[in-house]
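[recover] target loaded
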């Protein structure tokens, strides 16, 4: 069956005709030689938007995180982050394989921890221990169900990081979703962190690309590690044009994705066999539990797929659905209908 509502991820969006036109018309040069005008324009624009001295265009969110970590660590250093952090779960062990770092994992609430948690995780300055060096805050937190960090929590962690000599990195793959949900500017968060990454290829709808921003010295190091990790791109203005288009046109519409996610969550919460508090759905990611009467999450995902609704099973009894610019309210209502049909079987059991 054809997929009617693809809710696997906000990365599945395809560039719109207008974005494709912007891409087709992009002025380009060799960015490894530093002369792609569209990449330069994007980097200047993003440095300003994120309130940092400089920024660097990279192919992916994973590379953005890894060059950031590598730029401020040496083997034997330790990264403090939540157990739900993307860099720990989904970057192929990059922190250990590429950077030689161990991870001190915190158990926050839906990916969100406190300044006190960080302070307690910092290792003593003693030759037995790893050297605590970086803290990663992920906003919104993907595995936490698109949870949004309160600005003041990031500010408090920034204060601890500065006082204890740690680098604070914000994995803001979906920072613009967090800002839309909280009604704040990116700089309300970024002024408290040393480096930040954000992605154009998620809710913003561009095909490829992420940015890393920080001080001039940090970005000079990140530039070297981007090259080392194979991320130097030539006529990358083609990609940067999609990113610029996304920033110009697709920021304000993110609240629609959040409203669609809440609408879906409210309907799902009513269904037998599904465990979900719609109030937890703050942005465009919905994570819910599936009880055994519906089978495993993999089985349910397969049955949904066979009826035109694509989701990811993210645990044996957990499913994730994500809203984005390529699913409208009608498609969400179609998905709700399919969920109702599949769950109705257990209502009478
Ligand atoms: C929070 C977060 N950080 C980083 C990434 C990595 O992005 P990419 O898939 O572009 O490597 C993702 C991907 O979904 C993510 O959710």
């Amino acid at each position: 069956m054809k997929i009617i509502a693809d809710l696997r991820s906000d990365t599945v969006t395809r560039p719109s005709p207008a974005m494709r036109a912007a891409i087709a018309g992009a002025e380009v040069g060799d960015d490894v030689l530093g002369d792609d005008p569209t990449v330069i324009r994007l980097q200047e624009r993003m440095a300003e938007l994120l309130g940092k001295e400089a920024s660097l265009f990279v192919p992916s969110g994973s590379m953005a995180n890894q060059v950031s970590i590598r730029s401020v660590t040496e083997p034997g250093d330790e990264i403090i982050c939540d157990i739900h952090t993307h860099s720990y779960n989904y970057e192929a062990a990059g922190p250990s394989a590429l950077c030689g770092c161990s991870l001190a994992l915190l158990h926050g609430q839906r990916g969100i921890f406190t300044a006190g948690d960080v302070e307690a995780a910092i290792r003593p300055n003693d030759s037995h221990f790893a050297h605590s060096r970086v803290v990663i805050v992920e906003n919104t937190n993907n595995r936490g169900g698109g949870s949004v960090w309160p600005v003041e929590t990031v500010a408090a962690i920034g204060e601890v990081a500065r006082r204890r000599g740690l680098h604070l990195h914000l994995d803001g793959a979906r920072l613009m979703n967090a800002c839309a949900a909280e009604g704040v500017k990116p700089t309300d968060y970024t002024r408290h962190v040393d480096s930040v990454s954000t992605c154009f290829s998620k809710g913003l709808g561009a095909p490829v690309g992420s940015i890393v921003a920080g001080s001039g010295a940090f970005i000079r190091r990140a530039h070297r590690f981007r090259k080392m990790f194979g991320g130097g791109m030539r006529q990358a203005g083609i990609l940067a044009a999609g990113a610029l288009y996304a920033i110009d046109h697709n920021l304000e519409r993110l609240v629609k994705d959040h409203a669609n996610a809440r609408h879906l969550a409210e309907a799902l919460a009513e269904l037998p066999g599904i465990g979900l508090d719609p109030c937890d759905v703050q942005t465009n990611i919905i994570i819910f539990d599936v009880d055994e009467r519906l089978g495993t999450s993999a089985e349910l995902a397969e049955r949904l797929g066979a009826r035109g609704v694509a989701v990811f099973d993210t645990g044996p009894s957990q499913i994730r659905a994500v809203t984005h610019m390529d699913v409208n309210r009608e498609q969400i209502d179609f998905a709700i209908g399919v969920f109702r049909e599949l769950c109705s079987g257990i209502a009478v059991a």
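[recover] notes: Residues 60-62, 65, 86, 138, 142, 171, 173, 199, 201, 210 surround pyridoxal-5'-phosphate (CB under 6 Å).
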